[in-house]
Design goal:
Radius of gyration: 19 Å
Oligomer: single chain
Helix content: 25-40%
Structural class: alpha+beta
Number of helices: 8
Distance between the termini: 34 Å
């Protein structure tokens, strides 16, 4: 069966899923998106993802042409049409087709696109043995230029840092903000563990407020770990006992080296393992 893609209220075969080349989402990265996961046929934290999508759209003065309840139904219906249970869901909202100029007032018909598919971001052995990362020279967008809390289609900032990571032989790269503080990785939020306390950069550090990040914070606090959201620098990363990343696609993955420096024992630590297990209980019901 050909995968079905939702565009503007209709389902199309993957080969027929098309939008205008004059769409400002293509021409200028003018739009917003969400990456969402489903487990056993249930969409994980759908309401939170939809809220973030609509908040991002509001921040760039983009009106999504459907209410939130209809968006939720469209996501679930697309997932069902593709007969997927454990899947990755990409929701894209573009500004719509217009002229070759920047003026968004000359665009019409914003496009809502929903794609569902399988995804495996990292090889399984990295979840067992840990990931190596490097610090990218590309800094996170200045919040007064493009606020990192907006999940926009313009991901070039992250892509440039990702290129630095892959050129260094790493699958992920750490990004600093304009003040040289730790922000996040190119597609994941970062956590550190020091003396049993879980630390993560605060929202004003230039991060995208991850849905998985928030879920892990809730899990950690429910398990009686102290969690601190604060400003951090690379010294904190280098001297941490443990480090792990979180993201919709990555879920929770340990980091054992940064910039050639071994973190902790050089193996996934006990807090990371415990939170990883608890996260799987939350999303999959694993025991």
């Amino acid at each position: 069966m050909s995968p079905k893609v939702y565009i503007g209220g209709k389902l199309y075969d993957k080969s027929d899923a098309k939008i205008s080349v004059f769409d400002h989402g293509l021409l200028y990265g003018d739009g917003v998106f969400e990456g969402i996961r489903s487990y056993a046929g249930k969409v994980f934290r759908l309401a939170e993802h939809i809220d973030r999508l609509y908040h991002s759209a509001m921040a760039i003065h983009l009106e999504i042409p459907m209410p939130r309840e209809q968006m939720a139904r469209a996501i679930e219906d697309t997932l069902a049409a593709n007969r997927l249970t454990d899947a990755y869901i990409r929701v894209v909202v573009t500004r719509g087709a217009g002229s070759l100029g920047l003026d968004p007032r000359r665009t019409t018909d914003p496009q809502v696109i929903i794609i569902t598919d399988q995804i495996s971001l990292y090889p399984e052995e990295l979840y067992e043995h840990g990931l190596k990362i490097v610090t990218a020279g590309t800094t996170r967008n200045h919040p007064n230029a493009l606020n990192p809390r907006i999940k926009s289609l313009n991901y070039l900032n992250n892509i440039l840092a990702k290129i630095e990571g892959t050129n260094a032989g790493c699958l992920e790269a750490l990004m600093l903000n304009h003040k040289g503080e730790v922000a996040e990785c190119t597609g994941d939020n970062i956590f550190l563990v020091s003396r049993g306390v879980v630390h993560t950069p605060s929202k004003d550090s230039g991060i995208l407020e991850g849905i998985t990040r928030n879920a892990v914070i809730e899990i950690a606090r429910a398990a009686n770990y102290a969690v601190v959201e604060r400003t951090m620098d690379r010294y904190d990363v280098y001297t941490a006992d443990e480090c792990f990343l979180t993201g919709t696609a990555a879920e929770l993955i340990p980091v054992v080296e940064c910039d050639g420096r071994t973190i902790g024992s050089g193996r996934p630590g006990p807090v990371t393992k415990d939170l990883h297990k608890r996260f799987h209980v939350l999303v999959r019901g694993d025991r």
